[in-house]
Amino acid sequence: MAxxxxxxxxxxxxxxxxxxxxxxxxxxxxxxxLMRLSRYFLPxxxxxxxxxxxxxxxLMLRAGLVRQTAAGIYAxxxxxxxxxxxxxxxxxxxxxxxxxxxxxxxxxxxxxLWRESGRYDAYGPEMxxxxxxxxxxxxxxxxxxxxxxxxxxxATKSYRDLPRTLYHIQWKFRDEVRPRFGVMRxxxxxxxDAYSFDLDEAGLKASYEAxxxxxxxxxxxxxxxxxxxxxxxxxIGGNLSHEFHVLAETGESAVFYDAALEDVTHEELLTADASxxxxxxxxxxxxxxxHEKVGECPVPPDRLxxxxxxxxxxxxxxxxxxxASMGMTVQNKEGGSAHPHMGSYGIGVSxxxxxxxxxxxxxxxxxxxxxxxxFRVGLINMRADDAGCASTSDNxxxxxxxxxxxxxxxxxxxxxxxxxxxxxxxxxxxQLIVGPRGLERGVVELKxxxxxxxxxxxxxxxxxxxxxx
Length: 469
Ligand code: ATP
Ligand code: MG
Known about the structure:
- The chain is 34% helix and 26% strand.
- By secondary structure, the chain is of the alpha+beta class.
- Strands 3, 7, 8, 9, 10, 11, 12, 13 and 16 form a nine-stranded mixed β-sheet that branches.
- β22 and β23 form a beta hairpin.
- α2 (55-62) crosses α12, α3 (78-97) packs antiparallel against α7 (201-221) and α3 (78-97) crosses α12 (349-359).
- The longest helix is centred in the middle third of the chain and has 21 residues, at 201-221.
- The protein is elongated and about 80 Å long.
- Mean pLDDT is 87; it is low at 1-32.
């Protein structure tokens, strides 16, 4: 692909900083250079798409984030891809902090691998199966327990190789009977899945709790309050499992929880120690089916709350299910052999985008939290036909870029009203508005998307404000 002249110019700026004089210069892709709306690809629409039932799906289509290419399968358009990458990065950072190690497994798997665990026949029609040209049976992975077990099994001999938690962020395919709500229940979707290997049950419990905390921190950083819910373990098997639900009217699950959970603050979650975690896991929450099965709930009736939730994460401790069926052993301290105890831990990375929008929008459109906003600032030139406005806006744009502030610049020759509507729709946290009347007085307007508050500032003042934090 050809880079624009402006892009090359900005890149060459960095060649000068490359002191080693290698043949291939250090390459920094300064994408923001190309983020003038007049040259960007942002297909927004005013019309509400007829096939979309819930607000996040409508807004994702209207704001040009995704486009459906087949039932439950989406192309990620430039703006949507930026958000997806940011969500992925928050997830990755919290996994890394929890001590998990990233790798990347393929999307396509061999059926024989799944025959080892006995799940090839058990999994059912959600698994997309096909044969290659040599008539070998293959599948598009719906999850990776078998593959990671095989990889770990073939590389691990001793208790000294434990504990380990490995994860990847990779596309999955599940042939959902009813794909709906956009990326919320897709057929192809992006998942973070982690797998822990421990010598014994106590080790597994520690790995599980580390993930539990990592999940709370991840969702808090994404601006979401996610309720941990005790869950039935289903076909993956095992004995300990929690789902994490974002409370939203449009959620597909009914969740029962202790009102005391509502008092837990984000700060508490972000700094949770062992005793806080114990308190959180003890605050009983469960899915509707489980609630009915148990018959009586251990939460005092006056503290029992029921809401709808979107499942954004799910963790399982299943012990030796796969290590035993797939013959993975390690030598233990006594010289004998033991099957490692395992857990698996999923986060719906692409589903999270829908969940964030469900939780954060108004009539005008999306309200991105700073952590995942596709750009931090939307720079609006109100009068592209006015030389003063254009040169001031161009300068502001250049300076914002220099300060490393991710900016989408609406430099198009369009009415101001249309520009405002687009900026509100795509939900960037800040709008910086340059108009002729303000410029006469040497001021620009800064609007906070979340509250609608507007403030007049000098050019320097606006730059300083946006360059901080
Ligand atoms: P659900 O109950 O919503 O069908 P699941 O329990 O089958 O999900 P898991 O196997 O626990 O899903 O997968 C881990 C995470 O992947 C889920 O918590 C969810 O966030 C996400 N996920 C699962 N299925 C889908 C899907 N069809 N589309 C988007 N995300 C999904
Ligand atoms: Mg689940």
